[in-house]
Design a protein that fits this description.
The complex is a heterodimer of chains A (377) and B (298). Chain A has 377 residues and is mostly helical. Chain A has a single domain, classed as ABC transporter involved in vitamin B12 uptake, BtuC. Helix content of chain A is 75%, strand content 1%. Chain A contains 16 helices and two strands. Chain A starts with a helix and ends with a helix. By secondary structure, chain B is of the alpha/beta class. Chain B contains eleven helices and ten strands. Chain B has a six-stranded mixed β-sheet with strand order 6-7-8-3-9-10, sandwiched between helices. In chain B, helix 10 crosses helix 11. Classes of the chains: A mainly alpha (377), B alpha/beta (298).
Chain lengths: 377, 298
């Protein structure tokens, strides 16, 4: 439908449309969504938009600086926990939170106390993730660990942090995480109005994060990130220290992921260590790949499409929806390796071109498979 | 290359000492070994201000390793490298060495394929900016310098194209341009004409002569025709030591040089070195290093 509308525009505008069209159309659709969707779907979309901020943060480092982090769920989770600690203390109304009581704690741990204040908890949403990313990044990038080794270390981080949070039951709520978050600044999380407000706040933060990332990647700093991706050694021998650039953008990305997490927590009413684990962290990479990495808007669109599809499929086919998801990912990588937005920017809004790209890729994949098969036999 | 008016007034001829006899780079008793194998062996070597020096030698002579030590990529076991008077280069990191005024071009052309030609030069030109400075627009002086460099390397008309579409030779020029835009005092070029056509080679030679009017240049090269055509002073490196130094004619006649090249060639190609006299011997080494032997030249 979108493509039909857009093709009415004169051809000369298509260049601008393929760049600025998707973000604006998407924003309008998201703003209008509560008019047509049920409250349940709006809440679902709100959660997905929090994921979209996470996807955006990964695209910033993966798509531009070439650093694939397979542990970005950690920063999302840290932001989520930081804000959920505030919400948990609000729900406890001055008493000891329920899980601490069950774990035998007598009083609030010292590091929990400041989280009862919003002026402390809210900055922590970005400070905690970026501190962790900054420290890890500094060590990793200074040792010139790149590529798949960085991906493995970031994955190990996801495992480590989630195990740590599961193990520290009295302080973190263990496997269950922080549950029964009831209100935010006095507004009940169970009310439709609050959830709608959170939905629009999430859109605002998504737009802000998008513009911030756009500003970064279109600055000379952003071009140096691309330069680092293309040839890190040339950058180093051009008088820059790549480690500083990578650490800085990794920390910025972690902060954005933290914001995503903090917006996620009140919309779900719970944060748990599962969202920091390995699987969710890898899923983020899938969203970005499907949407088209190195495009920013692609990360957002990928996150929305994959998560919405996941939700619809899991309702319709509870037993085997994960296969659809796997097929979507494999299909996207094999047939449209630049993702949805990468395809749009190259081929425009032209169905025939899309089909011919798909046919070419499928032929290539087919002949490669055939030659591998011959090799096996 | 025709419009670089500001180079015309320079009085230092390419390849000659600047006149005061001081050295921009002094390498003293430099020794470096990898796994017990000595690559540079008590090496003494120097380049004067405003000089264009060619460094040749058989494969494994230590040429690239010498560049690695100068640029901080490898640490020497012993000895010193002094730059521009009294700067001890071993105290500086790779990016620090660049800030002191040493630019290096790698053997394989290294440019940023996803950026435009202009952006490639920009990414290089802003190397003195702090991170915050990289969010501000460029100063006029830098834009001016980029435009001059584009003229010099002949890519002005194509500055908006992605560097990924450039031919091999053009990529080499772009990388040289990325160094020039930083206005280095010393330029290190590792095989700048490798893989170039004859026309590209000649153009590069003239470009190097232009460049050398304003700064010191050290060229590592395997292409003997090219060296013969454009070099005034040549240093021959062999087994980590300076074997011979002087004009190409003198170096070619040096029996030690002949032996070094012949010994290697014989080991590799057997009877191919049967020719008499010295120039053919150097010619053979060109062939053994995998370069296309050129039919004509020097």
């Amino acid at each position: 439908m979108v493509s039909l509308v857009l093709r009415r525009f004169p051809g000369g505008m298509s260049g601008h449309l393929s760049r600025f069209g998707p973000p604006i159309i998407l924003l309008l659709l998201l703003l209008a969504a509560p008019l047509v969707l049920s409250d349940f779907r709006v809440n679902l979309l709100g959660k997905i938009l929090a994921f979209a901020i996470l996807a955006l943060s990964l695209d910033l480092i993966w798509g531009y600086a070439g650093m694939l982090s397979l542990g970005h769920g950690v920063f999302f989770g840290l932001g989520g926990y930081a804000f959920a600690m505030f919400l948990k203390l609000e729900a406890a109304k001055g008493e000891l939170p329920d899980f601490m009581f069950w774990s035998g704690l007598k009083e609030l741990p010292i590091f929990w106390a400041p989280f009862q204040y919003a002026w402390f908890a809210i900055p922590m949403v970005v400070i905690l993730p970026s501190l962790l990313a900054g420290a890890l990044g500094f060590l990793v990038f200074r040792s010139r660990i790149t590529g798949v080794y960085f991906a493995l270390i970031s994955q190990a981080l996801a495992l480590m942090v989630s195990i740590l949070f599961i193990g520290q039951q009295p302080y973190t709520g263990g496997t269950n995480g922080l549950t029964n978050l009831t209100s935010v600044f006095g507004h009940s999380l169970y009310s439709v109005e609050t959830q709608k407000a959170l939905y629009y706040i999430t859109i605002a933060f998504l737009v802000g994060s998008y513009l911030l990332c756009l500003g970064v990647v279109s600055s000379p700093f952003g071009r140096l990130l691309v330069a680092i991706r293309d040839d890190e050694n040339r950058v180093r021998f051009s008088g820059y220290d790549p480690a500083i650039f990578k650490t800085a953008v990794y920390a910025l990305s972690a902060a954005l992921a933290g914001i995503g997490g903090a917006l996620f927590a009140p919309q779900v009413g719970i944060v748990s260590p599962t969202m920091m684990g390995i699987v969710p962290s890898i899923e983020v990479a899938v969203w970005v790949a499907v949407g088209g990495r190195g495009t920013l808007i692609g990360a957002i669109i990928g996150a929305i499409i994959v998560n919405y599809a996941k939700s619809l499929l899991s309702e319709a086919f509870p037993d085997f929806w994960t296969y659809f998801l796997g097929a979507l990912f494999i299909g996207a990588v094999l047939i449209f390796p630049r993702g949805i937005i990468g395809l749009l920017r190259r081929e425009g809004w032209q169905w025939p071109q899309w089909m011919s790209v798909a046919r070419r890729r499928l032929n290539a994949v087919g002949s490669a498979t055939a030659s591998v098969w011959r090799g096996i036999r | 290359m025709t419009q670089n008016g500001h180079y015309e007034g320079a009085s230092i001829p390419a390849g000659k000492l600047a006149g005061d006899g001081r050295n921009i780079l002094s390498v003293e008793k430099l020794t470096i070994a990898f796994d017990g194998f000595t690559v540079l062996d008590n090496l003494d070597f120097s380049i004067g201000y405003g000089e264009m020096r060619f460094l040749i030698g058989p494969n494994g002579a230590g040429k690239t390793t010498l560049l690695d030590v100068i640029t901080g990529k490898s640490k020497a076991n012993d000895g010193s490298v002094t730059f521009d008077g009294d700067l001890d280069l071993s105290r500086h990191s790779e990016h620090g060495v660049v800030k002191l005024g040493i630019g290096r071009k790698f053997q394989t052309p290294s440019v940023y394929n996803s950026l435009t030609i202009f952006q490639n030069l920009e990414a290089s030109a802003r190397f003195r900016n702090r991170i915050i400075g990289l969010f501000r627009p460029m100063s006029r002086a830098i834009i001016q310098r980029i435009q001059e460099t584009l003229e010099l390397i002949g890519l002005t008309d194509r500055q908006e194209q992605n560097a990924g579409v450039l031919s091999h030779g053009e990529r080499q020029w772009l990388e040289i341009g990325m160094l020039l835009v930083q206005e280095p005092k010393l330029l290190l070029l590792d095989e700048p004409v490798a893989g170039m056509t004859r026309r590209e080679r000649d153009r590069t030679g003239r470009l190097l002569q232009d460049i050398a009017r304003d700064r010191s240049v050290l060229v590592v090269e395997h292409d003997m025709d090219f060296v013969r055509q454009f070099a005034q002073i040549v240093t021959v490196l062999h087994q980590g030591k300076v074997l011979s130094e002087g004009t190409m004619d003198i170096v070619q006649q040096d029996p030690q040089v002949v032996r070094a090249y012949l010994g290697r060639s014989r080991g590799r190609t057997g009877a191919a070195t049967a020719g008499e006299g010295t120039p053919p011997a150097l010619g053979v080494s060109t062939a053994t290093t995998g370069e296309t032997p050129h039919l004509t030249g020097g």
